[in-house]
């Protein structure tokens, strides 16, 4: 092979390499899923206190199947002004995987102000969006007490408070935030009523209302 042939071959490789780099960069720019590494993990969460993160392995078939279903909610939630979605290559970032107890792939965790919460939703775009919205919205839903219905599944706590800025509502909200994945929490606001709490179960039986006002 002559010098000119080598030069042409080298030039072709350089052009091909440049094309690959540009394509990869364009592909990253087109994605709404953030790529996290040990170098940018902490900085990312300084700017985004709440985010859903997927820990994956490049060779994992389940991860490849999840990819399009993860990309779609990232775009939908971005347009809705909700939380961002991110991903970590757990093979390339073993320290992060170990730190957050990643034992299989893919593993999804919701990080909220530094605390990781295991993802318990489905693996389709709609189910991911539904889970994120239910996990990151207000922990307590304000309702009209007259419209309370027995839940089809799970436990529902129904509180009655005098005002949303009351001490009782603040305490109830704190409890709801810590247990939001275990039950549904709703509240009715009535300035003339006594503070109270009832528990509704699927079978229809509920506890008697307890007066928390101390009077």
Q: Could you describe the 3D structure shown?
A:
This protein is 40% helix and 22% strand. The chain is an alpha/beta fold and 215 residues long. It has a five-stranded mixed beta sheet with strand order 1-3-2-4-5, sandwiched between helices. It has a five-stranded mixed beta sheet with strand order 6-8-7-9-10, covered by helices on one side. The longest helix has 28 residues, at 3-30. The protein starts with a helix and ends with a strand. The model is unreliable at 1-27 and 204-215 (pLDDT under 50). This is protein disulfide-isomerase. Residues 14-137 form the Thioredoxin domain.
Characteristic terms for this protein:
215 residues; alpha/beta; Glutaredoxin; 2 domains; 6 helices; 10 strands; 22% strand; PDI_thioredoxin-like_dom; Thioredoxin_domain; signal; Thioredoxin-like_sf; repeat
Largest sheet: 5 strands, mixed
Please identify the top-level CATH class of the largest domain.
Alpha Beta
Distance between the termini: 97 Å
Mean pLDDT: 81
Proportion of helical residues: 25-40%
Order of helices and strands: HEHEHEHEEHEEHEEE
Any low-confidence stretches, pLDDT <50, length ≥5? 1-27, 204-215
Which CATH architecture of the largest domain?
Answer: 3-Layer(aba) Sandwich
- Structural class label: alpha/beta
Cα shape: elongated
Strand order of the largest sheet: 1-3-2-4-5
* Percent in strands: 15-25%
The CATH H-level homologous superfamily of the largest domain: Glutaredoxin
Subcellular location: Endoplasmic reticulum lumen
Protein name: protein disulfide-isomerase
Catalytic activity: Catalyzes the rearrangement of -S-S- bonds in proteins
Domain Thioredoxin: 14-137
């Amino acid at each position: 092979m002559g010098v000119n042939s080598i030069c042409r071959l080298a030039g072709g490789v350089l052009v091909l390499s440049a094309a690959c780099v540009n394509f990869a960069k364009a592909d990253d720019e087109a994605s709404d899923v953030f790529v996290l590494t040990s170098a940018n993990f902490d900085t990312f969460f300084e700017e985004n206190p709440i985010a859903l993160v997927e820990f994956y392995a490049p060779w994992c078939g389940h991860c490849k199947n999840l990819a399009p279903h993860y990309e779609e909610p990232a775009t939908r939630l971005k347009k809705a002004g909700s939380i961002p979605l991110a991903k970590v290559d757990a093979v390339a970032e073993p320290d992060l995987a170990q730190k957050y107890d990643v034992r299989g792939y893919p593993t999804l965790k919701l990080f909220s102000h530094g605390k990781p919460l295991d993802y318990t939703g489905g693996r389709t775009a709609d189910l991911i969006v539904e889970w994120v919205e239910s996990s990151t919205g207000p922990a307590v839903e304000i309702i009209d007490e007259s419209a309370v219905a027995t839940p089809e599944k799970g436990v529902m706590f129904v509180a009655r408070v005098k005002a949303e800025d009351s001490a009782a509502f603040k305490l109830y909200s704190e409890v709801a935030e810590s247990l939001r994945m275990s039950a549904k929490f709703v509240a009715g606001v009535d300035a003339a009523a006594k503070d109270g709490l009832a528990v509704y179960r699927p079978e229809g039986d509920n506890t008697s209302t307890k007066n928390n006002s101390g009077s």
